Amino acid sequence: MSLKLAEKEQVVTTLQTRLVGAQAAVVAEYRGLSVAQMTVLRAEARKQSVHVQVVKNSLLRRALTGTSFAVMDGLLKGPLMFAAAEDPVALAKIFTDYAKRFDKLVITGGALSGKQIDAAAIAQLSKMPSREELLAKLLGTMQAPISGFVRTLNEVPGRFVRTLAAVRDQRAA
User: Fold this and answer.
1) Helices assigned H by DSSP within 21-130
2) Could you tell me the CA-to-CA distances from 42 to 3, 110, 135 in Å, in that order?
3) Whole-number Å distance between alpha carbons of 171 and 161
4) What architecture is the 5-128 domain classified under in CATH?
5) What is the pLDDT of residue 96?
6) Taking 80 as the threshold, does the pLDDT of residue 167 lie above it?
7) Please, are residues 41 and 12 in contact by the beta-carbon 8 Å criterion?
8) Counting beta carbons within 10 angstroms of the beta carbon of residue 112, is it exposed (0 to 12), middle (13 to 18) or buried (19 or more)?
Protein backbone atom coordinates (compact mmCIF):
# COMPACT_ATOMS: atom_id res chain seq x y z
CA MET A 1 0.00 0.00 0.00
CA SER A 2 1.49 3.27 -1.10
CA LEU A 3 1.29 6.32 1.13
CA LYS A 4 0.35 9.70 -0.26
CA LEU A 5 2.77 12.59 0.11
CA ALA A 6 0.79 14.17 2.96
CA GLU A 7 0.73 10.86 4.84
CA LYS A 8 4.47 10.44 4.35
CA GLU A 9 5.09 13.95 5.69
CA GLN A 10 2.92 13.18 8.70
CA VAL A 11 4.87 9.98 9.43
CA VAL A 12 8.17 11.88 9.22
CA THR A 13 7.00 14.69 11.50
CA THR A 14 5.58 12.19 14.01
CA LEU A 15 8.91 10.35 14.10
CA GLN A 16 10.81 13.61 14.51
CA THR A 17 8.66 14.63 17.48
CA ARG A 18 9.27 11.21 19.08
CA LEU A 19 13.02 11.67 18.59
CA VAL A 20 13.15 15.07 20.31
CA GLY A 21 13.19 13.66 23.85
CA ALA A 22 14.77 10.30 23.02
CA GLN A 23 18.20 9.37 24.36
CA ALA A 24 18.59 6.11 22.46
CA ALA A 25 17.23 4.35 19.39
CA VAL A 26 17.36 0.76 18.15
CA VAL A 27 16.60 -0.89 14.83
CA ALA A 28 15.84 -4.59 14.61
CA GLU A 29 14.90 -7.01 11.90
CA TYR A 30 11.47 -8.47 12.59
CA ARG A 31 11.05 -10.78 9.59
CA GLY A 32 9.26 -13.97 10.68
CA LEU A 33 7.57 -12.61 13.81
CA SER A 34 3.86 -13.24 14.09
CA VAL A 35 1.33 -10.48 14.69
CA ALA A 36 0.75 -11.79 18.22
CA GLN A 37 4.46 -11.62 19.01
CA MET A 38 4.70 -8.07 17.64
CA THR A 39 1.67 -7.08 19.71
CA VAL A 40 3.26 -8.45 22.87
CA LEU A 41 6.47 -6.57 22.13
CA ARG A 42 4.64 -3.32 21.45
CA ALA A 43 2.51 -3.62 24.59
CA GLU A 44 5.55 -4.20 26.79
CA ALA A 45 7.41 -1.35 25.11
CA ARG A 46 4.45 0.99 25.64
CA LYS A 47 4.51 0.19 29.39
CA GLN A 48 8.17 1.27 29.51
CA SER A 49 7.54 4.46 27.45
CA VAL A 50 9.38 3.06 24.44
CA HIS A 51 8.08 4.06 21.01
CA VAL A 52 8.13 1.12 18.58
CA GLN A 53 7.17 1.51 14.93
CA VAL A 54 7.59 -0.32 11.66
CA VAL A 55 8.35 2.34 9.10
CA LYS A 56 9.83 2.49 5.61
CA ASN A 57 13.58 3.06 5.66
CA SER A 58 13.35 6.08 3.35
CA LEU A 59 10.90 7.81 5.71
CA LEU A 60 12.98 6.90 8.75
CA ARG A 61 16.10 8.22 7.02
CA ARG A 62 14.34 11.56 6.46
CA ALA A 63 13.18 11.70 10.07
CA LEU A 64 16.68 10.97 11.37
CA THR A 65 18.29 13.69 9.23
CA GLY A 66 19.47 16.58 11.38
CA THR A 67 19.22 14.66 14.66
CA SER A 68 21.83 12.89 16.76
CA PHE A 69 20.43 9.63 15.40
CA ALA A 70 21.55 10.34 11.84
CA VAL A 71 24.54 8.05 12.50
CA MET A 72 22.14 5.10 12.12
CA ASP A 73 21.80 5.75 8.38
CA GLY A 74 24.07 2.80 7.48
CA LEU A 75 21.90 0.38 9.47
CA LEU A 76 18.74 1.04 7.48
CA LYS A 77 18.68 -1.94 5.13
CA GLY A 78 15.83 -4.40 4.78
CA PRO A 79 12.59 -4.58 6.74
CA LEU A 80 13.27 -3.01 10.11
CA MET A 81 11.46 -2.10 13.28
CA PHE A 82 12.46 1.23 14.82
CA ALA A 83 12.30 2.03 18.53
CA ALA A 84 13.27 5.11 20.51
CA ALA A 85 13.09 5.98 24.21
CA GLU A 86 14.23 8.44 26.85
CA ASP A 87 15.59 5.60 28.99
CA PRO A 88 18.30 3.75 27.02
CA VAL A 89 18.47 0.90 29.55
CA ALA A 90 14.74 0.16 29.33
CA LEU A 91 14.95 0.19 25.55
CA ALA A 92 17.91 -2.18 25.55
CA LYS A 93 16.32 -4.52 28.11
CA ILE A 94 13.08 -4.83 26.15
CA PHE A 95 14.80 -5.63 22.88
CA THR A 96 17.39 -8.05 24.28
CA ASP A 97 14.72 -9.88 26.29
CA TYR A 98 12.50 -10.23 23.25
CA ALA A 99 15.43 -11.19 21.02
CA LYS A 100 16.05 -14.07 23.45
CA ARG A 101 12.37 -15.07 23.52
CA PHE A 102 11.75 -14.74 19.79
CA ASP A 103 14.80 -15.83 17.83
CA LYS A 104 13.35 -14.22 14.68
CA LEU A 105 13.88 -10.75 16.18
CA VAL A 106 17.45 -9.72 15.32
CA ILE A 107 18.86 -6.49 16.74
CA THR A 108 20.71 -4.70 13.95
CA GLY A 109 22.11 -1.80 15.94
CA GLY A 110 21.23 1.58 17.30
CA ALA A 111 22.40 4.97 18.47
CA LEU A 112 23.19 6.35 21.89
CA SER A 113 24.37 9.91 22.58
CA GLY A 114 25.04 10.57 18.92
CA LYS A 115 27.16 7.45 18.42
CA GLN A 116 26.25 4.30 16.55
CA ILE A 117 26.24 1.15 18.68
CA ASP A 118 26.04 -2.48 17.66
CA ALA A 119 23.97 -5.36 19.02
CA ALA A 120 26.68 -6.36 21.51
CA ALA A 121 26.72 -2.86 23.02
CA ILE A 122 22.92 -2.96 23.29
CA ALA A 123 23.17 -6.31 25.10
CA GLN A 124 25.70 -4.83 27.53
CA LEU A 125 23.50 -1.78 28.05
CA SER A 126 20.62 -4.08 28.97
CA LYS A 127 22.67 -5.52 31.86
CA MET A 128 22.92 -2.14 33.56
CA PRO A 129 20.51 -1.33 36.37
CA SER A 130 17.44 0.63 35.35
CA ARG A 131 16.87 4.28 36.16
CA GLU A 132 14.49 3.38 39.01
CA GLU A 133 17.03 0.98 40.54
CA LEU A 134 19.76 3.63 40.38
CA LEU A 135 17.49 6.25 41.95
CA ALA A 136 16.55 3.82 44.75
CA LYS A 137 20.22 3.11 45.45
CA LEU A 138 21.02 6.82 45.46
CA LEU A 139 18.15 7.55 47.83
CA GLY A 140 19.24 4.72 50.14
CA THR A 141 22.78 6.05 50.14
CA MET A 142 21.57 9.56 50.92
CA GLN A 143 19.30 8.35 53.73
CA ALA A 144 21.86 6.10 55.43
CA PRO A 145 23.76 8.83 57.33
CA ILE A 146 20.53 10.58 58.36
CA SER A 147 18.89 7.40 59.65
CA GLY A 148 22.09 6.46 61.51
CA PHE A 149 22.15 9.92 63.12
CA VAL A 150 18.50 9.61 64.16
CA ARG A 151 19.14 6.17 65.70
CA THR A 152 22.09 7.60 67.62
CA LEU A 153 20.01 10.50 68.93
CA ASN A 154 17.19 8.13 69.85
CA GLU A 155 19.57 5.85 71.76
CA VAL A 156 20.25 8.41 74.54
CA PRO A 157 16.62 8.78 75.73
CA GLY A 158 16.04 5.05 75.12
CA ARG A 159 18.97 4.14 77.34
CA PHE A 160 17.69 6.59 80.00
CA VAL A 161 14.22 4.98 79.95
CA ARG A 162 15.72 1.47 80.19
CA THR A 163 17.85 2.60 83.15
CA LEU A 164 14.79 4.05 84.92
CA ALA A 165 12.87 0.82 84.29
CA ALA A 166 15.75 -1.21 85.74
CA VAL A 167 15.86 1.02 88.86
CA ARG A 168 12.08 0.72 89.23
CA ASP A 169 12.23 -3.08 88.94
CA GLN A 170 15.11 -3.21 91.42
CA ARG A 171 13.18 -1.15 94.01
CA ALA A 172 10.05 -3.24 93.48
CA ALA A 173 12.03 -6.40 94.21
Assistant:
1) 35-47, 57-64, 88-101, 119-126
2) 23, 18, 26
3) 15
4) 2-Layer Sandwich (3.30)
5) 92
6) yes
7) no
8) buried
